[in-house]
Amino acid sequence: MSSSESRGASDFGSSESLARSQDHALALLPEPELRALLTKLAVTNARVRRAIARELRRPTHGHSRPKRHKHPREPQPEAICANCHQERTSAIADEPCAFHPGQLEDSVFEFLSRTPEGRPLRIRRTLVMWTCCAEAPQALGCADANAHLWRAE
Predict the structure, then answer these.
(1) Contact at 8 Å (CB) between 148 and 86?
(2) 148 burial class (0-12, 13-18, 19+ CB within 10 angstroms)?
(3) For every one of its 153 residues, what pLDDT tens digit does the chain have, with 9 covering 90 and above?
C-alpha cells in the first residue's frame, strides 16, 4: 500500500463512512453547485455521462400518479431480455435497459519491461473485453434502451 493510499484509508476510515460523508456533503450542496458538479463529471467521464443518461430516462417515483391495472399482472418469469439477458421480474419489467451491443472478445496486450538484472522482458496479458466499449465483462452496459426487449425462452 502506498503512503497516499494508507493516508487516504486513515483519513476516511471505511468506504462506508466515506460514502456517508459524501452523501452528507452532496445533500448540503446548493442546487446550482450540484448541477455544475454533475456537468463537470459528465463532460470528463463517458461512464458518468451514460449513468446520468440512464438515470434521467428512469421514471421518477412519487412525482406522478401510479399506473393502475384492473388485474395486477405479474410478468412471465421465463422471459429474458434479448439485449441485457436479465430474467424478467416485476421489479425490472418496466425499467430502461442498459446493455452491450458488442461481443466479449479476448484481447492480447504485450508490455515491455525489465528484469531486476536489467534484461528486457516481454509480458503478455490476455484480457476479456467488450468489443463495443473496451470495458470489462462485468461493466454496466454502454448502450441504453427505453425498455427491455423481452423474449420467451
Answers:
(1) yes
(2) buried
(3) 444 444 444 444 566 777 777 878 888 888 888 888 888 888 888 888 888 877 777 666 545 555 555 555 555 557 888 888 888 887 777 888 999 999 999 988 888 888 999 999 999 989 899 999 989 998 888 998 888 888 876
Q: Compute, in degrees rounded to 10, the torsion defined by CA atoms 59, 80, 104, 145.
A: -30
Are 89 and 153 within one domain? yes
Whether residue 144 contacts residue 53, with contact meaning beta carbons closer than 8 Å, is answered with yes
Residue 56 placed within a domain: no
Displacement of CA 36 from its chain's centroid (Å): 21
Overall domain count for the chain: 2
As to burial, measured by CB atoms within 10 angstroms (0-12 exposed, 13-18 middle, 19+ buried), residue 117 is exposed
Q: What does the DSSP 8-state code read for residue 87?
A: B
Q: Does residue 83 share a domain with residue 151?
A: yes
The verdict on 91 and 133 lying in the same domain is yes
* Segments forming the whole domain that contains residue 121: 75-153
Contact 147, 99 (CB under 8 A): no
Q: What predicted TM-score, i.e. pTM, was given to this entire model? A: 0.44
